[in-house]
UniProtKB/TrEMBL annotation:
Protein name: Roadblock/LC7 domain-containing protein
Source organism (scientific name): Streptomyces chisholmiae
SMART domains: Robl_LC7
InterPro entries listed in its UniProt record: Mycobact_SerProt_Inhib_Rv3364c, Roadblock/LAMTOR2_dom
Domain named Roadblock/LAMTOR2: residues: 6-96
Top-level taxonomic group: Bacteria
Entries under Gene3D superfamilies matching the protein: Dynein light chain 2a, cytoplasmic
């Protein structure tokens, strides 16, 4: 991704209790990270978030008329992970503390991806064939 969107991710972190944010491509590549997370951690988590959304999509039939995955929320002893669709082929993940205002975080993330859906989109990678 050519545009530096770290300012967008840092803006999401303005919600009290938010820690880190990453923008992930559908194939698990780190597209952008907030200032507070190192590159290695961000890349490892990007791959995991891509796998997580894929897993969630695979169980969509468990929900009646649940054919379109929108978001995942995971609780840990020390906090939450919010994962939402960020645009065509991208996902936004944010880690937070347990006392985060969940509604405020969800709304902030939704507004961010709605306003920047085009900038946050990632086209699928093209595979070069032997005859190309």
């Amino acid at each position: 991704m050519s545009a530096n969107l770290s300012w967008v991710l840092n803006d999401v972190l303005e919600v009290r209790g938010a820690h880190h944010a990453i923008l992930v491509s559908a194939d698990g590549l780190l597209m952008q990270r907030s200032d507070g997370i190192g590159r290695d951690d961000a890349e490892r988590n990007a791959a995991a978030m891509s796998s997580l959304q894929s897993l969630c999509r695979s169980v969509a039939s468990f929900v009646e008329n649940g054919d379109l995955w929108k978001q995942t929320l995971i609780e840990f002893d020390g906090g939450w992970i919010f994962l939402i669709a960020g645009g065509q082929g991208s996902y936004l993940a944010v880690s937070t503390s347990l006392d985060v205002d969940m509604e405020a975080m969800s709304i902030r993330m939704q507004k961010t991806v709605s306003a920047l859906a085009k900038a946050m989109s990632a086209a699928p990678r093209q595979t070069m064939g032997a005859d190309v």
